[in-house]
Structures are given as structure tokens and as C-alpha cells.
Design goal:
- The complex is a heterodimer of chains A (579) and B (247).
- Chain A has 15 helices and 22 strands.
- Chain A has helices at residues 14-26, 62-72, 79-98, 131-143, 211-219, 246-249, 285-297, 318-325, 327-337, 392-413, 422-438, 447-461, 468-485, 499-523, 541-544; strands at 4-10, 32-36, 52-53, 113-114, 124-125, 149-153, 155-163, 166-174, 180-190, 223-224, 229-235, 253-255, 302-304, 307-313, 346-355, 358-360, 372-374, 379-380, 465-466, 532-533, 546-552, 558-564.
- In chain A, strands 1, 2, 6, 7, 8, 9 and 17 form a seven-stranded mixed sheet that branches. Chain A has a five-stranded mixed sheet with strand order 18-16-10-21-22.
- The model of chain A has no long low-confidence stretch (mean pLDDT 97).
- With 247 residues, chain B is an alpha+beta fold.
- Chain B folds into two domains: 4-104, Beta-grasp domain (Ubiquitin-like (UB roll), Roll), CATH 3.10.20.30; 107-246, Alpha-helical ferredoxin (Fumarate Reductase Iron-sulfur Protein, Chain B, domain 2, Orthogonal Bundle).
- Chain B has ten helices and seven strands.
- In chain B, a hairpin with a 2-residue loop joins strand 6 (98-100) and strand 7 (103-104).
- In chain B, helix 6 (171-181) packs across helix 10 (221-241).
- At the A-B interface, helix 3, helix 4 and helix 9 of A face helix 1, helix 2 and helix 3 of B.
Chain lengths: 579, 247
């Protein structure tokens, strides 16, 4: 008999686990499946460092959190969604506290908060600098107490099953055995995270290949605001390992080759010895990454073996503070860069970190395709606008994971079990995997070569600064790579843990995601937040105060449409930092 | 730099062979490269059929534990140059069944982790409206170290007791049980103590401390085990002296 559930989650990271628990608590009788290509505690939520934002102090307010988020996002945020987000954020983080998350504390035992980039008040909850790790393990371990949550660990979803205009399950490959099976469900929630691996230099784990975005896109749900990709200003040069923004919130300085705090030249405020909120090193990530490029152009960066870098200086903070507040920064620098930030400056450069865009959803995580929901980085509600503020994404996992879980649970409660007519589709999918990959003998293109060329095209065409010309070139390269992908060779024909097969499936997802990024970037002829065009240098609210939607045409090509931004209380204005 | 190093990898393809074999590959030996970079080079450039797990490459997801020159290691945190001039021997973690190449079966660990009830147990849950449980930095420090476990399972690969007795619940699971037992918000320690007492293996653990030596996150499971044994001994002593169950 085919496995059948009420709600199926694709992905078991922060959003997926929060959704699973929300469903189990909404109705313990609902059958829940968590299908993940890795064991849930391996999910990339684990790598998040700095913290998770929610208003708790008496001198802070929900409106200020909303305003910081909206101005940080360059007015591309849907303000009704931001309102819901900031309102539900505190109780979600509190719930995690009740589930055992080891939040850092003040001396009297209350939850401590720290400053973060682009935030006007201290509202970032943290567990030293391993916040994502602790949140993920807390969620995962808490999820173990709900017997209605059935896990499919190390199952790779290859296709959404759609019938009668509704998503009604998935086809998935069990890595251990190689079997390909349908798993039916009345509702499916995508929680697969982001797609940083589309680029060559990223903080993202190897598993962040945009699978959920590609699944939705192929099934007919549009992708929203895919042109907005976040560079984090401080990554280690070779590995791309993230040095958390918390290191600047605790007082770290960014210095160019002259030892000069160069951010003062980019309308980000004047340097003070101690951190000032919404100023200098605590400016938003897009502006800091853009300032780096300008410093390179002025010849004021330091030449390193992996290209230009600037220095992040933490030495003046002292060993005690570093060990107490940002111990992981020290551990990572010592282990991977062979330097000790207590005594030495850290070489850093901007690195691909996050995608603001994703599967188009409403405020309850519902996509336009009935039965399909999405939450977390894979989704785009949109609360992050054209530039996400640090520490909003961990909170987003919780708020919108829970919302999507509750909405999907309600939807599933009113539907009958999926019909067995879907099984024919599953058989087709099984045959496709065998024909195109496992049993194919005439392929000649090495998957790694196509992947590297795609990453290079993306870095050149869709980096911190873009141009129509560069984007057009990238679009042409991607088309050629899509063509060559048809001829991809899979050497491994084994059924057992065939990671070459999964990496080829991931590559296929990344090519789709890359296409949507390039097309939406090409069409957006303005500069806003993380999307900076050298040929259209100003924000253009007349034409582009709108979300882009990338749809897939039946012939595989894409088309772009626009959707107005929801503005409620904060009309578009200037983004002001440091003054 | 044109230095190269030989990696000697355990290969096992269950559909083709009954026993693991070894294959050698030559890879660049850059000073920034970790063992995992060498494996990725092989997979991308030399042999796409090599199978292993990895994800974050920053020592926090816990995926890439293997045996490197006989020792349990996170391959993302182990530099190739430490083994120059080579060869570097890479094998799957010991004490686990091998699925394929460098991948081990980990369902046993997942069951053990679940068995110790790794969640906050309370008689009465505090309503959210009443805010957070107060927990001072000192109270946090009581269990913090044990909350750092990334479930990489290197401690199981190093554990002589687990090697002999697969029923032994093992270092990481016990450390995680202690993580909750020592959390001021938790009231489940009696329940967990009873669960752990069912596992005789724990008494076989002499203070060898291999688990603590190999732990990449300084969790000190050996300390957790000793502490547990002391708690359990005190409890049974009290049961003996105070049979009406006062604790």
C-alpha cells in the first residue's frame, strides 16, 4: 500500500520541524511525514550563528522592528506580512525557550539580546554564536516526542505529484536502498532552504541547491523576487565560512589596507569607538558589501591569495569578551584560517549568503498551487524585501513555519485522501530517473564541469553589481549549459547511496533556479537593495515597487510578471543609516 | 604550490563486492585543504562513484565523520598537510555497519538518541504569557557543554564498550541525557535515570575517556558518564537506605 499522509514536509530544518510540531499540536490525529535528503539535525539551519530577532525589551516596539525591516528591505517588503512577523516573533522565540533552547542570559536570568546590523534597538536573541545550531537541535529533539511525526531521513524528493490542479504528494528516492517511491499527502510544505550553491563562493552548505524552488517551479508555482541575493560582507576568503555579524555587533571594525574604517566614506555614519546602532559596521549587509566593491575599485583593499580582502579587527574586544560572546568565531578562525582573532585581524570578503526570493507564498505560506505551501528560505512571503536584515531569517523560520503548518493542517482536514491515479505518474518518474540518469550510457558531460561553469556565469553576471550586458551574457551561458546538461554523464549506476545521482538532480534544480535569478535581474531595470544595476543606478518606484514573479512556460522557458507590493503604514522613503 | 598527496580510500560497493577494498588517488595538497576537499576533488575530477556524506564544511552539521589514519575525525576539520607526505588513509567510522564506501548506517544512533527523551520534561508547562523561565548564566553553564553535541558519532567510533556491546547506549546519548537532566527547566531526570539504568553497558565503561579525546566540540561525554554513574549509584544507595523512595 502506498504511504499516505495528511501533510508532508519536504525538508527537516528549522522551518520544516517548526511546521511539523505546529501540525502535531493543531491536531494530533493528523499523519505527518518529514522527508529530508539529510538527517534533520544536519540541515543548514545548523550553521546560523548570530541570532534571531524579536522585540522583548520595554524600550523597544513592534513598529520599530517593522520599520527597520521595511527600510532595510528598501521598501520591497509586504507590510502586512511584516506586521504579522514582528507580532508573532516574540512568542515564537519564547516557545523555543520553553522547549529548552539554551539562550544566552543576563545576570538575573532573563533572555539576553544583542545589537545587529540595520536594527535600531537591541532585539537579537542569541545562544552565544551558535544560535542556529541550538535552535535546530532544540526543534529536532522536541519533535521526537510527537509520535505522529514520521521521518523519512535521507530521502531525496525528485518530483511533486500534481493532479486535478492540486499537489497531492511527492516521488522520492531513498538513498540507502535506491528505491523510488510515491509518498502521497493531502498537502505538501516545502521547507528546503536556499540555493547558495548556485554561486561559487558561498557560506551555504553543499546541500543548499534550491531543490524546493525547482520542484515548485517545475510543478507550476511561480518564484518571487529571485533577483535579490544577499552577499554577507564578512566571509573567510578561501572557505567562504561566515564570520557572524555579531562580531561587529560586539564592537568589531572593518578596516581597509590603510587601517581606515572605510564605511564612513559610504554614507553610513561616522566612526565611534563603540558600536552605534544602524551605523557604520552595523549598517545593512547590502550597503556594506557594495562598499567593499568600491574599496576594491579605489585600490584600498588588501591582496590575498584568493583575491582582495579587507580586515575585520576584533583585537580591541579582548579575549574574555570574544570567548564569552563569539567563541565560534575564534574557533573557526583558528581551525580554518590559522589565525587567532584575539591577536590578529581577520581577512574577510563578501560572500553569497542568502536569497531573499523564493517560492511565491501568501502570509500563511500558501502558494498559488492548491495543496502546496512553503516556509523558510525556500519561500518568499515577502518580509525581507530587497535586502534581509541579519537575525530576521531564524525568526522567519519559526513564524512562517508555524503559520504554514497550521494552514496546511486546516487545508488537509477538509480533503479526502489522494487518489491512486497518481501512482501512474510516480511510475513515469521512476522510468525517467532510470532512462535519463541511471541507465544512461552515452552521456559525455561531467556534472562538476557544468556546475562550475554555471557558478562562474552567476558570479560574473549576477554579483554585487550587475548590468544588462552582463546579465544577457549569463542568460546565454545558462541556456547553453541547460542544453549540455541533457548530455550529462552519470558514472555511478549503483542503487546504494548513489550521491552522484543526487548531485546531478541537484544540478538540474540549480540550473532552473539560476535561470529565474538571471531573468528577473535582467527585467528589473532599477537599483534596489541587493540588486544594483550599473546601467540603472536609481530606485524606480514608478515601475518597480513590485515583486517579480518568474513563471515557467510549457516549453521550459520563463516569463516574468509583476505583483504590487503591499504598503500599509510606511510609504517608500529614503534609507538612512548613520545620520 | 604543486605538492600532491596520495589518498588511500576504503571502497565498498555492496552490489559488486563482499568485502571492502582500497583505492588510491592522487590529489593536490594545498595548505588550506582539508581531507574533505581531497574527497571532493576525487569525486568531481577523478571518480564520480565515490560516496560519502558532507554538508556544512565548518564543523557544525556533524555529517563528515570518518576514520583518518586510524583515528575518528571530522574530515572538514582535518588538514591534508598534517599527513604529508602521505598516504592519507580514509575509512568509514568504526563500530558501525558500512552502507557503502565511507558511509555508515546510523539508525542505531538515532534510536538511542530518541530513547533518552531529549526534550524538556515537565509536570506542568508554563504558559507562554508568563514569559521565559529564568535561568542564570551559572545555571546555563551547568549543562551548556553537554548541549554542544553535534551528533557526529565520533565518540561511538572511538568507544571500546560500544565496539564490544552494540546495546550500550553510548557517549553522545548519555551526554545529551545529562544536558537535559542538568537544565534548570527540566523535571525529567528521574525518568531518564530509569531509562539509562536499563542499559547495563554503562557500568562497563571504565574511565578510558576515548570519547572525550575524539570529541571535536569538547562535550566531554566521559565526564557525563561518570557523573551519571555517580547519580545512579547515589540513587540506588538511597533506595537501599531509604526504601520508602525518598530521594
Amino acid at each position: 500500500m502506498t504511504a499516505t499522509y495528511d501533510v508532508l514536509l519536504v525538508g527537516g530544518g528549522g522551518a520544516g520541524l517548526r511546521a511539523a510540531i505546529a501540525i502535531a499540536e493543531t491536531n494530533p490525529l493528523l499523519r505527518i511525514a518529514v522527508v529530508s535528503k539529510v538527517y534533520p539535525m544536519r540541515s543548514h539551519t545548523v550553521s546560523a550563528e548570530g541570532g534571531s530577532a524579536a522585540v522583548i525589551s520595554a524600550d523597544d516596539s513592534l513598529d520599530e522592528h517593522a520599520y527597520d525591516t521595511i527600510s532595510g528591505g528598501d521598501w520591497l517588503c509586504d507590510q502586512d506580512a511584516v506586521d504579522a512577523f514582528v507580532r508573532e516573533a516574540p512568542e515564537e522565540l519564547l516557545r523555543l525557550e520553553h522547549w529548552g533552547c539554551p539562550w544566552s542570559r543576563t545576570p538575573d536570568g532573563r533572555v539576553a539580546v544583542r545589537s545587529f546590523g540595520g536594527m535600531k534597538n537591541k532585539r537579537t536573541w542569541y545562544a552565544a554564536d551558535k544560535t542556529g545550531f541550538h535552535m535546530l537541535h532544540t526543534l529536532f529533539q522536541t519533535s521526537l516526542k510527537y509520535p505522529s511525526v514520521i521521518r523519512y531521513d535521507e530521502w531525496f524528493v525528485t518530483k511533486l505529484l500534481v493532479d486535478d490542479g492540486r499537489v497531492q504528494g511527492v516521488v522520492a528516492l531513498e538513498l540507502m536502498s535506491g528505491k523510488v517511491e510515491p509518498i502521497l499527502a493531502k498537502a505538501v510544505i516545502l521547507c528546503t532552504g536556499g540555493c547558495g550553491k548556485v554561486f561559487p563562493f558561498t557560506t551555504n552548505a553543499s546541500i543548499k541547491t534550491g531543490d524546493g524552488m525547482a520542484l515548485a517551479y517545475t510543478a507550476g508555482a511561480p518564484l518571487k523576487d529571485m533577483e535579490f541575493v544577499q552577499y554577507h560582507p564578512t566571509g573567510l576568503p578561501f572557505t567562504g565560512i561566515l564570520i557572524t555579524e555579531a562580531s561587529r555587533a560586539e564592537g568589531g571594525w572593518l578596516l581597509n589596507k590603510d587601517g581606515y574604517r572605510y564605511l564612513q566614506d559610504y554614507d553610513l555614519g561616522t566612526p565611534e569607538p563603540t558600536p552605534v546602532l544602524r551605523s557604520m559596521e552595523l549598517g545593512p549587509r547590502d550597503r556594506l558589501s557594495q562598499a567593499f566593491v568600491k574599496e576594491v575599485e579605489k585600490g584600498r583593499t588588501i591582496d590575498g591569495p584568493y583575491g582582495p580582502v579587507v580586515h575585520l579587527d576584533l583585537r580591541h574586544l579582548g579575549r574574555e569578551l570574544i570567548d564569552a560572546r563569539i567563541p565560534f568565531v575564534r574557533e573557526l578562525c583558528q581551525k580554518y584560517q590559522n589565525i587567532d582573532p584575539v591577536k590578529e585581524m581577520i581577512p574577510v570578503r563578501p560572500v553569497i549568503h542568502y536569497i531573499m526570493g523564493g517560492v511565491h507564498t501568501d502570509i500563511d505560506g500558501a502558494t498559488p498551487l492548491a495543496g502546496l505551501y512553503a516556509a523558510g528560505e525556500v519561500a518568499c512571503v515577502n518580509i525581507n524585501g530587497a535586502n534581509r536584515l541579519g537575525s530576521n531569517s531564524l525568526t522567519e523560520l519559526l513564524v512562517f513555519g508555524a503559520r504554514a503548518g497550521r494552514a496546511a493542517a486546516e487545508y488537509a482536514s477538509t480533503r479526502a485522501d489522494p487518489s491512486s491515479s497518481l501512482l501512474a505518474q510516480a511510475e513515469d518518474e521512476k522510468r525517467r530517473l532510470e532512462r535519463d540518469f541511471l541507465h544512461k550510457t552515452d552521456g559525455s558531460e561531467r556534472p562538476a564541469t557544468i556546475r562550475e561553469e554555471m557558478q562562474e556565469a552567476m558570479e560574473q553576471g549576477a554579483g554585487i553589481y550587475r548590468s544588462g550586458e552582463g546579465l544577457t551574457r549569463a542568460a546565454d551561458r545558462l541556456r547553453e549549459l541547460q542544453e549540455r546538461f541533457r548530455n550529462v554523464a552519470v558514472q555511478d549506476s549503483s542503487r546504494t547511496f548513489n550521491t552522484e545521482l543526487t548531485s546531478v538532480l541537484e544540478l538540474s534544480c540549480m540550473l532552473d533556479v539560476a535561470e529565474s535569478m538571471i531573468q528577473s535581474a535582467l527585467w528589473r531595470e532599477e537599483s534596489r537593495g541587493a540588486h544594483q544595476r550599473t546601467d540603472f543606478t536609481e530606485r524606480d518606484d514608478e515601475r518597480f515597487l513590485a515583486h517579480s514573479l518568474t513563471h515557467r512556460n510549457p516549453d521550459g522557458s520563463s516569463r516574468i510578471e509583476y505583483l504590487p507590493v503591499t504598503i500599509t503604514r510606511w510609504p517608500p522613503g529614503e534609507r538612512v543609516y548613520g545620520r | 604550490m604543486d605538492d600532491r598527496i596520495t589518498m588511500r580510500l576504503a571502497r565498498y560497493r555492496p552490489e559488486e563486492e563482499d568485502e571492502p577494498t582500497f583505492e588510491e588517488y592522487e590529489v593536490p595538497c594545498h595548505k588550506e585543504w582539508v581531507v574533505l576537499d581531497g574527497l571532493n576533488y576525487i569525486k568531481d575530477q577523478l571518480d564520480g562513484t565515490l560516496s560519502y556524506r558532507w554538508s556544512c564544511r565548518m564543523g557544525i552539521c556533524g555529517s563528515c565523520g570518518m576514520t583518518v589514519n586510524g583515528e575518528p575525525k571530522l574530515t572538514c576539520a582535518t588538514f591534508l598537510t598534517d599527513y604529508a607526505p602521505g598516504p592519507v588513509h580514509v575509512e568509514p567510522m568504526q563500530n558501525f555497519p558500512v552502507v557503502r564506501d565511507l558511509i555508515v548506517e546510523m539508525t542505531d544512533f538515532m534510536e538511542k538518541l530518541t530513547a533518552i527523551k531529549p526534550w524538556i520534561v515537565r509536570d506542568e508547562e508554563r504558559p507562554l504569557a508568563e514569559g521565559e523561565y529564568r535561568q542564570t548564566p551559572d545555571e546555563l553553564n551547568e549543562y551548556k557543554q553537554y548541549s554542544m553535541c553535534i551528533n557526529c558519532m565520533l565518540c561511538y567510533a572511538a568507544c571500546p564498550v560500544y565496539g564490544l556491546d552494540p546495546d550500550f547506549i553510548g557517549p553522545a546519548a548519555i551526554a545529551t541525557a545529562q544536558r537535559y537532566n542538568l537544565d534548570s527547566r527540566d523535571e525529567g531526570s528521574d525518568e531518564r535515570l530509569d531509562l539509562l539504568s536499563l542499559h547495563e553497558g554503562i557500568w562497563a565503561c571504565t574511565f578510558v575517556g576515548e570519547c572525550t579525546k575524539v570529541c571535536p566540540k569538547k562535550v566531554d561525554p566521559a565526564g557525563a558518564i561518570q557523573r551519571y554513574k555517580l547519580d545512579a549509584a547515589l540513587t540506588s544507595l538511597k533506595d537501599l537506605l531509604l526504601p520508602w523512595g525518598a530521594r
